[in-house]
Design brief:
The structure is a single chain. By secondary structure, the chain is mainly β. It has no helices and seven strands. The protein is elongated, with a radius of gyration of 17 Å.
Length: 102
């Protein structure tokens, strides 16, 4: 029997919502990502004036639309930048927008 090397390509999936509604109705109240194979992240969320309103290194983060000072952010479009690493320490970068609807 001859040994064979088989390379399995992983399917890195990151689901990032495009909007959320932090109005405490229990539906879409928080912005968060769902991922497979990611072991670490660095996430920054900025308002339209390029001010950082939220940042985290927590894989299980949930942003409820409140800024760093604890004040509710106004309705609008926010930009996120995320760096993520998988279990092989490969770096992936994601950016986009999320709409906060009140």
């Amino acid at each position: 029997v001859k040994n064979q090397l088989v390379h399995v390509l992983k399917d890195l999936r990151v689901l990032i919502p495009s909007a959320f509604t932090p109005n405490n109705d229990g539906i879409n109240d928080e912005f968060f990502i769902t991922s497979k194979y990611i072991t670490s992240i660095q996430l920054i969320i900025m308002n339209r004036w390029n001010q950082v309103v939220f940042e985290t290194n927590d894989l299980n983060f949930r942003w409820n639309g409140v800024d760093k000072s604890g004040k509710p952010c106004p309705e609008g479009v926010y930009t996120y930048f995320m760096k993520a690493r998988d279990f092989e320490n490969q770096l992936f970068e994601f950016s986009g927008t999320v709409t906060l609807i009140r």
